[in-house]
Write a structure and sequence with these properties.
heterodimer; A: 4-stranded antiparallel beta sheet; 10 strands; B: mainly alpha; about 0% strand
Chain lengths: ~260, ~400
């Protein structure tokens, strides 16, 4: 926030982030920002550092240098649950559902500030815990309805198909009432029909709930349809940012993907 | 029916009632009525059907199994709910036992002090001793958990195993603390005056008259009530919190830690909580054990007897299921105790194989327990009662089937 005149700080700002894994520099001075109310796409070749960037933002890894801000507040050194409490949540590239719990309880788990999470409340204030559980259950059923998984509410989450797990991942973020959702390849391994549904859901959430999205995606069709702007990452840094059609036609982007000899892949 | 049998019946009723509540199916109201009826019937029938020695054996068997069930519940809070591989059950068990002993015994004086040393002896009541045992074990658990819970699975196992051995060696070597290698004796038994002559002064004369045929050897009949009640309280308290949003969070952390963290759960804190709750329960188990055996020393707390058998109990009963933890404790203790009779009976045959085999028969029991563990892991890894599908009982049940 160099210029103090800026109306609102971006919902997410990443500044000069660096992360080394041994001799490998996964993130190399990456800076980018995500504006409130957008669906920002994050693309780039494999190994560009997109998922690592997500891990740094959400506090799963600590960066070697650089900072992460949300609404101007420094969240670099917060643990994952601290980042979550600032209204940022994420999904995983490979769904990480809690397979030994039902779909419904997978969602109920995510609801923040549950009285019953302090075990003494279960002894001392069972009434309050019960009332809140009812509320959270109803909220979870609504979310399930939204992603068309109601019929699977009582099924073990581990038994869902790959596509259904992707929907569950998105559904979990909705339970958190977030401001910013980081989606890591939401459409990978999802069939066309489901992908369409997924895209509609994301667009609906942005429009109706004002949730900002930053999504990693390899499916260009989806990116072109959904995202604006699109950020391209390559070799651990931001290569360029622009409208989807600009990015699509940019020679440096093609070069990053195909290694300077495009056409031969 | 003689008066002594009738008196025993009176003592058997409550433990049987609680057992009935635990194992009978059906709705709460129906279960209570059914358990009352069956407990009354069985409490009358047992002294008639079994000779007195056998009945006493059965009661002391159940008492010991009940103590193991408390340990098994403690382990369930750590392993079953949160996935901690704690191979140091013996350590918390020992801390609880010695703590309660120190708080309830009398400090040796005069000539006795030369033979028996201990850090202090406060003569506080039994229940205070039990609570202090839990608290101290929980504190030890908390202090250990800070460095140790950074570890996972087999590394955690090695660390906890080591810590339990350290605790055991402390009690073995520090004479000033709890009489070192010598046993700590004279741990008071609650209300043991019930079985003495003359009986407790506060006892109404009718009750004293009723109990008069019982000798101090029958004390275990009373202690079974104490153990059952404490077990029931531990079970209900743990069941409450494990089938709640707290328990849901632990299951989430156990199965997919990163995802739980990304969904806003403070993973480290929850892992510590479950470890500390488990340590508290194990400490309580230690106290209940100390007041039962009256004299304890370091050798009671070796890993085989106080850690691994508890693991087999929990795995047989069903990791993650509190009811299963109790059933597993009784089942494995039954196998263990039954094996002693079996090996006795088989000793002529063993003699034929090798002369000194009967005298080594005790080791065969371990083989049996090990075999049992192997069979569980191969054929029923989820245990007798598997973990329930729905975690939270606080959630209204109209969508859940299980």
């Amino acid at each position: 926030m160099s210029e103090t005149t800026a109306a609102t700080p971006p919902v997410l700002e990443v500044r000069d982030l660096v992360k080394d894994f041994g001799g490998l520099r996964a993130i190399d001075g990456c800076s980018l920002s995500v504006q409130e109310g957008t669906i920002t796409g994050l693309i780039g070749p494999n190994g560009a550092g997109k998922t690592t960037l997500f891990n740094l933002i959400t506090g799963y890894f600590q960066p070697d240098s650089g900072r992460v801000f949300t609404d101007g507040e420094d969240i670099t050194s917060l643990p994952p649950h601290g980042v979550f409490q600032r209204g940022i949540c994420r999904t995983f590239q490979i769904p990480r559902e809690h397979g030994t719990m039902t779909v419904l309880e997978n969602l109920m788990l995510v609801a923040p500030d549950q009285a019953g999470e302090q075990f003494w409340n279960c002894w001392l204030r069972p009434g309050a815990v019960r009332a809140q559980e009812r509320e959270i259950r109803d909220q979870a059923m609504e979310v399930l309805d939204f992603v068309n998984l109601t019929h699977l509410a009582d099924e073990y989450a581990g038994r869902l198909s790959g596509g259904q797990k992707k929907l569950l991942e998105l559904a979990r973020t909705m339970m958190a009432r977030p401001r910013l959702v980081l989606l890591d390849e939401p459409a990978a391994g999802v069939n066309k029909t489901l992908m369409k549904k997924l895209a509609e859901n994301i667009e609906y959430l942005r429009r109706e709930r004002g949730i900002t999205f930053l999504l990693i995606e390899h499916d260009m069709e989806l990116v072109m349809e959904l995202c604006d702007p699109v950020i391209v990452m390559s070799e651990g840094r931001r290569l360029m940012e622009g409208r989807p059609e600009e990015v699509r036609n940019d020679p440096t982007v093609l070069e990053a993907y195909l290694g300077g000899q495009y056409g031969t892949a | 029916m003689q008066q002594i049998d009738l008196a025993r019946t009176a003592f058997l009723f409550l433990p049987l009632f609680l057992l009935g509540l635990l194992v009978l199916p059906g709705r709460a109201a129906l279960r209570i009525v059914l358990a009352l009826a069956i407990a009354a019937l069985v409490a009358f029938a047992l002294p008639l059907m079994l000779d007195r020695g056998t009945l006493t054996y059965l009661v002391s068997f159940s008492t010991m199994a009940g103590i193991y069930a408390i340990l098994s519940l403690g382990l369930n809070s750590q392993w079953g709910l949160a996935g901690h591989v704690n191979f140091g059950v013996a350590g918390f068990f020992a801390v609880g036992a010695f703590t309660s002993a120190l708080f309830t015994t009398t400090m040796p004086e005069g000539a006795l002090a030369a033979y028996s040393q201990q850090a202090f002896g406060l003569q506080w009541p039994f229940l205070v001793g039990v609570v202090m045992a839990g608290i101290l074990a929980a504190i030890v658990g908390f202090l250990i958990s800070i460095p140790v819970l950074r570890l996972r699975t087999d590394f955690l196992a090695i660390a906890t195993l080591g810590i339990a051995e350290v605790i055991r060696f402390i009690f073995q070597n520090e004479r000033w603390l709890a009489n070192g290698p010598q046993p700590m004796r004279g741990i008071p038994r609650p209300f043991d005056c019930l079985f003495k002559d003359p009986a407790c002064s506060w006892l109404p004369s009718g009750a004293a008259e009723f109990l008069s045929p019982l000798s101090p050897r029958d004390y275990v009949f009373f202690y079974l009530i104490v153990v059952s009640l404490i077990l029931a309280v531990v079970f209900i308290a743990l069941e409450r919190i494990s089938r709640s949003p707290w328990g849901r969070m632990l299951r989430a952390v156990r199965d997919e830690e990163n995802s739980a963290a990304m969904n806003g759960k403070n993973v480290t804190r929850r892992r510590i909580e479950s470890f500390v709750v488990g340590s508290f329960i194990m400490g309580v188990g230690g106290a209940v054990y100390a007041h039962y055996v009256v004299s304890i020393d370091y050798s009671h707390f070796n890993p085989l007897f106080a850690t691994f058998i508890v693991w087999v109990m929990l795995m047989l009963g069903g990791s993650g299921n509190n009811k299963g933890a109790i059933i597993g404790a009784f089942a494995v203790w039954g196998v263990w105790s039954g094996a002693a009779f079996m090996i006795d009976a088989a000793s002529p045959a063993l003699q034929l194989i090798s002369d000194d085999l009967p005298s080594r028969g005790a080791y065969l029991r371990w083989m049996l327990v090990a075999l049992l563990l192997g069979l569980i892991v191969l054929y029923r890894p989820q245990g007798i009662l598997k973990e329930r599908k729905k975690v939270s009982d606080f959630m209204p049940g109209d969508t859940g089937k299980d």
